Amino acid sequence: MMSMLKKIAVSAVLAAVSSLSVLAPVHAQIRVEVSGVGSNQIPIAIAGFTDEALTPQQVTSIIKDDLNRSGYFRLIDTNVVLNENAAINFGDWKSKGADALVVGSVQSLSDGRFDVRYKLFDTLKSAALAGFSVSAPPGNIRLTAHRIADDIYEKLTGVRGVFSTRIAYVTKAGSEYRLEIADADGEGTKIALRSAEPIISPSWSPDGTKVAYVSFESRKPVIWVQNLITGERTIIANFKGSNSAPSWSADGSKLAVALSRDGQTQIFTVSANGSNLQKLTSSSGIDTEPQFSADGQSIYFLSDRSGGPQIYRISTAGGEAKRVTFSGTYNITPRISPDGKTLAYISRRDGKFQLYVMDLASGQEQRLSDTTKDESPSFSPNGRYIMYATESGRRGSLAVVSVDGKVKQKLTVQAGDIREPTWGPFMK
């Protein structure tokens, strides 16, 4: 595992998703283990979709896995098949303990696509809540099921679902490093980049079509942006010294980066095409790991200017940086929730590197992880979950925890280390 101290030095739309064919598929998938449950689980029954055996993957199984993994639903067993036009005996479903019911169907179309239809019912109110129809090619059945699960999640919780989003991470198998892209459930893994040299700090563009990262393929850290649709790669920062820790602004027009071109590593901003470099900090310490705030008006970053690594905030217009973390002597890797209210970071206390969150209004902290070698936190786009890297059996693995700490997931691969996770945005 890359030590935190070393890391400080080194880091100093459906159509869009389906068009990622330029990426090479991977056969080794991530295994997900879930523990814990959310508060006030919603009991829901998901009937089998009629004729779903026609599709490459069973739609209802994917929906069930998604909802179960979220921790906010309790699945009611059902052995029935019901399409979206079936007459619903609401009293029968209420007696089985289901507050909600999902039904649907699959129809094979003449052009090779499938028409997938679904409907969601509120059994307590005996009324339909939602439903839609999607014509999808065979390769998009899993994505279609994720979209249905997203719709169910949003209608029943009031929060947008993230099952159809993607994640990026770095794996190392033998001497090869790979930047991989996968669905949020770890399926559908594809390779964006292979290298004999390390790849670190991947960061999604706000529109989900590009990933910025640091590659050592030139035997030094260089920041690249890769278009995931075309495969085109562009160098954003290749200055003297270290070029590290790219982070996108919310509008996608800029990246915050950490550069040592002038000696000590400091924070800069640069346009998304690599032009218009501007220096933001000029301290006597090392400033790195920048992250734009949700409103784009400030940047959170790591600095040892106070004698040890702590998190600071500075306006994007420049000026005086203000310290944010005060508990503990070692706080690194700031990440901001999509609503701008919560700071996630890694803190070393009692020799353990663990995931913490802070309410920025009150300053109240909460430890979310039980593991001891955590790094690289990343919020889900709906702000309800945080993915981070940790260590399991001396190998890197990923973990996901809900922001209230109640739902935990562990994601592992059969071979190799898995590190540096970043959760992609909602697709437009």
UniProtKB/TrEMBL annotation:
Quaternary state and interactors: The Tol-Pal system is composed of five core proteins: the inner membrane proteins TolA, TolQ and TolR, the periplasmic protein TolB and the outer membrane protein Pal. They form a network linking the inner and outer membranes and the peptidoglycan layer.
Intracellular or extracellular location(s): Periplasm
Family listed: Belongs to the TolB family.
Protein function: Part of the Tol-Pal system, which plays a role in outer membrane invagination during cell division and is important for maintaining outer membrane integrity.
Protein name as annotated: Tol-Pal system protein TolB
Boundaries of every TolB N-terminal domain copy: 31-127
Signal sequence, renumbered to the chain: 1-24
Record InterPro entries: 6-blade_b-propeller_TolB-like, Tol-Pal_TolB, TolB_N, WD40
One Pfam assignment: PD40
NCBIfam families associated with the record: propeller_TolB (TIGR02800)
Organism whose genome encodes this protein: Undibacterium hunanense
Major subcellular location class: periplasm
SUPFAM superfamilies: TolB, N-terminal domain, Tricorn protease N-terminal domain
